[in-house]
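From the shared-data thread, chain only:
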Amino acid sequence: MKNEFVLAFNEVLEEKGLPKETILEALAQALVSAYRKSMNVSSAQEIKAIIDLDKGEFGILAEKEVVEEVQNELTEVTLEIAREYEPEANLGDLVMVDSTPEDFGRVAAQNARQVIQEKIRQAEYAAQIEYYEKQLGEIISGIVQATNSQGMTIGLELNAEGTMPRKEMIPFERFRIHDRVRALVAEIKETGRGPQIILSRTHRDFLRRLLENEVPEIFHGVVEIRSIAREPGHRAKVAVSTSQQGIDPVGACVGQRGVRIQAIVRELHDEKIDVIEWNPDPTAFIAKAISPARVNGVYLRESADGSRNALVVVPEDQLSLAIGRDGQNARLAAKLTGWRIDIKSLTESISDWLFALQNNPNLKEMAEEEKTAIAQAEDIMARKADGRVINPEEHDLLAKFNDRLESYAIRKHQAEVEKQQKLRDEAMETIPPTAFEMDLSGTGLQANILEALVEAGYDNAGKLVLTSKINPDALLKVNGFGPKALERVAEFAEVLPELVPEPVEEEELVEEQPVEEQPDQEAESQTEVQAESQPEAGEPAAPEAQIEETTDAEAKVPSSDESEEELTFDEMFVIKPEVFEPEEANGEVEGEEEDDDDSTEEVDSTTGKKKKKRKVKRFRELEYDPERDMVVTKKKHKRDGTPWNEWEE
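Structure, as tokens:
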């Protein structure tokens, strides 16, 4: 039993190539699941599996209650047996005891097989995902296992399967079962049935990796691949450059007698590959990208909106070669360079210019300057229309004449672009920046026009106003937008600065802070005056200071904020000095005790409500008590003037 168990365990480890802990965990879970299923044990009862690889044994520990008399062997155990596993066990305790059935080996083998297989399969999927995520963008090889109209299934390492859809296969490329295929790992998806590995042979990075494998200069970084344009199975263009002098990047990629590039062509099912040298000058780069056709001139036009157009003029006999079959060569050149390319023959370009010079009033000045050249060009074009032969000198004359005209058009176009940019900058100064975050609801336009503007890309007020100022014709092309709507936008643009609030600058906030702090400063100054007015030890209080203090106390009315402050229990019953307010400047009042008609408002500290309190004139005198170190009030009887009571203030 020991040898069979250990041998089977080691065989699984070697076959699946998985960690030992993963298999042990899967086996333990399978044993527990088999025990619960075979013995019909409750899920609340704790069950553990013990596996000893050294002895080749395994068992089940079940949690049972210690009782005097066992009535259910699945959940109860006697005290004697329990203490064999837990010496300190007592009646009523829960103890883990050995509960392995006699025929559990056969039952466990039958019930645990599916659980073990599932755990092993999950571990395999995790290992496959981890391995092939590192292979993204790299070339791997596999064996074709199945083919159909949707694509191919390819067997890979770690028992993984790759899928190559039909769109990722080179056209007219056919493989048979058991053929070895090289492909690029394009994408990995996690599914319930394991990782789905998408392979591709049409991706441009597949050609990049093939060049790196075949050309050592590219692999070591001496030659750099700048861009790749590819139509799988037909043609590809590769732009390369080098940073070291004395190295031909194109020759390094092609190899001696084309050995290196031919190996890649065979791998790509006879796909033609043009290797050209990259050039930082767009004019020279586009001229080489049109190869193998010869070029008379390349003329670039960049618009304010960011579009880049290039006009390529070629000899008449090179026009079909420059365009390519179904426009393939021109299309690949545009992808390689990033420019929109228009190709014209020299005679077609001259004919267009002659017509424009005769009918466009804006070119009247240019027509006067090139009057002689225009006559010569018309004569050459007339003889060509008659089918006569044009010599090379006349071709050069037409090429130079076309170059001057195209250069003039580029300068004029550049001036127009600069003018538009200047108008844009001036218009931006009149539009608040926050207007570009404002919707179109405030423009006053109809709902259908607003919907059409949003669909056309004018989704904020700033963009709408800017376009109305620099290019109103673009707005008139919007469905339902007419001259009246344009006038309404112009009126809205005039009041826009007033509708959008300007952001408050930090300097203004700093200037306002001292104004807010003035009450605090006044309070500090009042505190200083009161501190100076207090008498020193041994000196009586000055009458003037007493008058100011009491007058402030009479005028002070607690605010709502102060009345709402929470007071402690002791503070509610503290007698405040404001109750004893002197009426005269000398601190004495002569007369009878009688109620005065005047009254003051006081805030009740318990309820927070204001109540009226009548002032009572009494005989009182303020004196400083050196023993207590405070000012006291002495009240006198109106008849004999003898002091009868004292209160502290």
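Residues 504-565, 573-600, 612-617, 637-649 have pLDDT under 50 and may be disordered.
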